[in-house]
Write a structure and sequence with these properties.
Layout lengths: L2 H12 L5 E4 L3 H15 L5 E4 L2 H9 L13 E6 L3 E2 L5 E2 L6 H9 L1 E9 L13 E5 L4 H9 L4 E4 L15 E6 L6 H9 L4 E4 L1 E2 L3 E6 L7 E3 L14
Parallel strand pairs: 1-2, 1-3, 3-6, 6-12
Antiparallel strand pairs: 4-5, 5-11, 7-9, 7-10, 8-9, 12-13
Length: 236
Amino acid sequence: MKKRPAAEKAVDDYVRDGMTIGLGTGNAANMAIDRIAELVDEGYDLKFVATSLQTASYAQMHGLEISDIDQVDHIDVTIDGADEVDPDLNMIKGLGGALLREKIVASLTEKEIIVVDGFKVTDVLGKKVPLPVEVCRFAHSKTASALSSLGCEPLLRTNGDGKAFVSDGGNYIYDCRFKSISDPVALESAIDVIPGVVECGLFIGMAYAVEAYCEESDSVKELIFKDRTAGLREYP
């Protein structure tokens, strides 16, 4: 499974001089950052926003200056990974712990590019990975109980030391194991109305995608997706 060729293709195909770029979180995003740093060294003038403190640190180590998201007026392209993707390009994200900021950045992005290995593509979401749900720390066990009423087994995420994982936003994350998610739109709505839920890791209808398709080769398959190109800026 070759994510690096796909990440590099995503950068070369979609990043243009003068853009504001959203930087995702995880291995695929880091591979994209490696290539983006080369473009900056070649003279590209780019602005960047990061979806996590981890990503910001990695980008800064490569000489990229991170802007405050409230100080940019648009995000042209975000390059990120995903934990699971269905045929409609609905996704589960958040196993890296950055789902809240990833979703905020994605919602403000004109073109979201997703880089994944082929094994992360599934016919129905929830078969391979749990669904991360970020929750307020106050009364979090009560929130977990409400989540379980939707048919999942919520497990509080912990660090290696056994203490609860805390997100960049200061929240807890419950990893919710469903047998499958046949209607991600309805499930997202049901989760979002639970008091105490900050955000869930279902990303519905947000993505364009580039996929590392064949684990036996270095070939890269570009998925064809819903047209979200209306109103995009033109770059040389």
